From TrEMBL, chains A, B:
One BP annotation, GO: methylation
Cited Pfam families: MRM3-like_sub_bind (PF22435), SpoU_methylase (PF00588)
Presence of keyword Repressor: no
Lineage: Bacteria, Pseudomonadati, Bacteroidota, Cytophagia, Cytophagales
Ranges for domain MRM3-like substrate binding: 8-64
PANTHER family reported for this sequence: RRNA METHYLTRANSFERASE 3, RRNA METHYLTRANSFERASE 3, MITOCHONDRIAL
Gene3D superfamilies according to UniProt: 3.30.1330.30, 3.40.1280.10
Domain tRNA/rRNA methyltransferase SpoU type: 107-245
Protein name: RNA methyltransferase
Molecular function, one GO term: RNA methyltransferase activity
Keyword list, A-Z: Methyltransferase, Transferase
Family listed: Belongs to the class IV-like SAM-binding methyltransferase superfamily. RNA methyltransferase TrmH family.
Length: 251, 251
């Protein structure tokens, strides 16, 4: 059974304020927790159902974290998932280390992505396309929000995030010696089907309603657009990120 | 003020049973309702806030539907949207007319898409890429579910849906005289970046967890795959549909 104190602690981590205070976040769901166990994270606590424990004893034993057994109901009440699931973990957040595109690499930059579901989806897509670094504006939703972690479907274990004031950040990286191409999606840009991507670079995706802001826009060297063939006004930012990364990988 | 009976009627349309009984569905939100007013649909009733009425009087007057004014609160209570919005409509469903790919055209086929948000997103993406016909398996979630209509962001006015038993449907269309290419996404298929798409065809997307079922698989001539470069296990079906259609349009 989960103690009152523990349940209270788990609840508190739904709020950014307490995640910052404890330098910890929630990972919910059997699949995400299993991915976590093989990843390079400092796990503090794992709560699982008896069934999950029986099926994964080997993976759970001999690990340095505290392990608790709870019922599916207790787990559901402790976490944010609406459906019962079999596992939940409390994990130490990573330091906000500076990230940049090394030679031959691409980094995704997010300018003011507000929706946690969108950020999580973008992390998953970045992971699919082999991008391991995402730089977020300080107005972008919190990477460690349980909805972001859930929507990333385990990809949060393979993709790193770095929050920065984007103007200062772009100022710094655009003069790197190996040369840097900065791409950004706009309604009026070059058709992405005719775009060739340089060796090393950054791809900027903008806010759900307003796109890339004017201060960040000044740093974008290549304005690109996903061509439209029908009547829809726009694409969701996660969808757009996937299409852009697919075109980038296609070369 | 909305009468009790009217509120009850609006509520009932959240359920498929009553949508079928009344041959009607809900369109919620100012933006969707405005798109509806210029589209080819038989609108039965429009409920708007006074503010919305003032701003759109011309568009709302002289139309053959019943018009009601309500408060934002009443609208929120009558509909399914969690946030208040300014307009809601009741619209007659279209007949389930047979759809197929005419010469030079592509049709999207959905095999067992269960999530309304996914179906709505796919309708929006199809619309962006100029696809106007979607054929759904009978197990696919209801096109007229308010969540589908909302997620389509007005694209439901430009894209038609047709529900069919897919085996019989594919049996019928694969022998059409103008020749038909049937493409389907699988984990182990030909790299979509190296795929060329024929002049006329069908693209099948499968269920969120299980992909395309074995009976439908038999009809797929070209098995295609979105290449993966990183660690994520899968892509959401809406994301996958966008990437496939972008590759198709790229030629």
């Amino acid at each position: 059974m989960l103690s009152k104190n523990l349940t209270k602690y788990l609840h508190s981590l739904q709020l950014k304020k307490f995640r910052l205070e404890h330098n910890a976040f929630l990972v919910e769901g059997a699949k995400s927790v299993l991915e976590l166990l093989t990843a390079d994270f400092q796990t503090e606590l794992v709560v699982v159902t008896e069934q999950f424990y029986k099926e994964n004893t080997q993976k759970l034993e001999k690990q340095p974290f505290r392990l608790e057994i709870a019922t599916a109901d207790e787990l559901a009440r402790a976490g944010t998932l609406q459906t019962n699931d079999a596992a939940l973990a409390v994990v130490k957040t990573k330091d906000n280390d500076f990230l940049y595109a090394e030679k031959g690499e691409y980094v995704l930059i997010l300018d003011d992505i507000r929706d946690p579901g969108n950020l999580g989806t973008i992390i998953r897509i970045a992971d699919w396309y082999g991008i391991t670094k995402i730089v977020c504006s300080q107005t972008t939703t919190d990477w460690y929000n349980p909805k972001v972690i859930a929507a990333s479907k385990g990809s949060f274990t393979r993709v790193r995030g770095y929050y920065a004031e984007l103007t200062a950040y772009l100022e710094k990286v655009r003069n790197m010696e190996h040369g840097t191409q900065i791409y950004g999606t706009f309604l009026e840009g070059k058709n992405i089907h005719q775009t060739t991507f340089g060796d090393t670079g950054y791809i900027v995706m903008g806010n759900e309603s307003n796109g890339i802001g004017p201060t960040v826009e000044q740093f974008v060297i290549h304005k690109i657009t996903i061509p439209r063939f029908g009547g829809a006004e726009s694409l969701n930012v996660g969808i757009a990120a996937a299409v852009v990364l697919d075109n980038w990988r296609r070369g």
